[in-house]
Amino acid sequence: MRKALRFFTSRLFWTTLVILLQFGILVYAVFWASFRAGFFFAFMLLSVVMSLVVFTRSEKAAYKTVWIFLIAVLPILGGVLYVLMANKQLGRLGRKKIQALRSANLQGQPESRAVQLLGSIEPEYARISSFVRNVTSLSPWVDTAAEYFRYADSFFIDLLKEVGRAERFIFIEYFIIDQGHWWTAILRELERKAAEGVDVRVIYDDMGSINVLPPNYAKTLEQKGIRAIAFNKVRMHINPRMNFRDHRKIFCIDGNVCYTGGLNLADEYANDLIRFGYWKDNAIKIRGAAVWNLTCMFLAMWKALTGDNVQPGHYAPTEHVEGDGFVHPFGDNPFDEITVGEDVYMQVISSAKRYVWIMTPYLILDDAMMGTLMIAARSGVDVRILMPHVPDKKSVFEVSRSNYMPLLKSGVKIYEFIPGFLHAKMFLADDDIAIIGTTNMDYRSFYLHFELSVLFYHAGIIRDVKADFEDTFGMSEEQTAEKCGRIGLFTRLKRTFFCLFSSAL
Q1: Which segments of 58-123 are extended strands (E)?
Q2: pTM to 2 decimals?
Q3: What per-residue confidence (pLDDT) applies to 420?
Q4: 285: enclosing H helix or E strand
Q5: DSSP strand E in 262-412: where?
Q6: Is 3.10.20.310 the CATH classification of the domain at 340-504?
């Protein structure tokens, strides 16, 4: 009873209800105007024009196909829906903001000797790194140490120790912040540090935290001496910007230490709260020169949201660290014409010579990614994908499983993590390169979210990543084409329906 009451009084429930009500009124008004007020041809013309707009825009084919299909099936309503819900093109001011995000990455940037060094040692990996640097203005680095956390409790314990050592600033940017045991402990330290004069700033995604934070939580933090802002606050009306979320995880301390990975700041990630069986996730800690990239990403977002005149050079790393290998953190955003996260994933798959192993909670792929995986497997590369066995979103899970069969037939091996839900986003190839970050293998991460990833080349952390993969394979069940083919007609129809709207899931 208490759980039901909490649901029906939640901000998410009432926001969803009001938006659905608006959507119903919109549909009724369009059809009423079409057949009663003589706007039938006007709406039809709008749908034709929007079909041409969708077709000619620089979007991924899969994203365009969904909307062309919807407009074709709903010719009266489709054009209106696209204008109100899917048009993510920015105006002049919006484009200036995105340019400011990029240029902020360059301000005060120290010289990175890793660019030339990587090119002389590993030309093939240097090509991937050059792509990232050219489109994000963020460089690879040496002089960086990294630590891998396969369990959330060890991550939280280590993070609390580093927060206690902060002297200059603490920057936090997370998709979900939940007022549970771990966040309470972190907040207590943040409040103490703010009282000591440390510059503490927090960005949280309003939709990501809608069920766990009150509407004006930023004001609560401000009262504790912590500067805070909610990313893209949820509004109770239909608008195309509602889909764009800040899915990044950044916890930066003094510009010398930064944490990121799949983990959010919530108890369920440490299995203190059980919802979908055992929660399998990861986090990383980087120390040294490469922290600069993540600091720049935070400051660029802070400037875009608040308008503050930020000077990134004041927040550069101050400690020299002896590291091994190359570390290259980078970000992605939904407003440019380049899907950086997906493109880097495909380059790593294509460059693999012996194997490429992938952990991902979702497997909603466009034709390009599907083709890249299948070509690699057919070329003799050991391609393995680790997925959850217990889903957090059943509709998304059905779409993910619908992609199993063509991959299996091409030689890709797919495993499901039996104990519960797997939330880590991680690539490993040939013992040489790894990617750890926030980017899922789905349309939302590739097209609609602000995301980040960290590329590692010849770094010691890769051994820990491989050990985690090997242990997780041991707790997983391999899927087969025979097993995946034994599904009923209803399941097939359900998956087909969900696939039509997979870009919105």
Answers
A1: none
A2: 0.91
A3: 96
A4: strand 283-288
A5: 278-280, 283-288, 326-332, 355-359, 382-388
A6: no
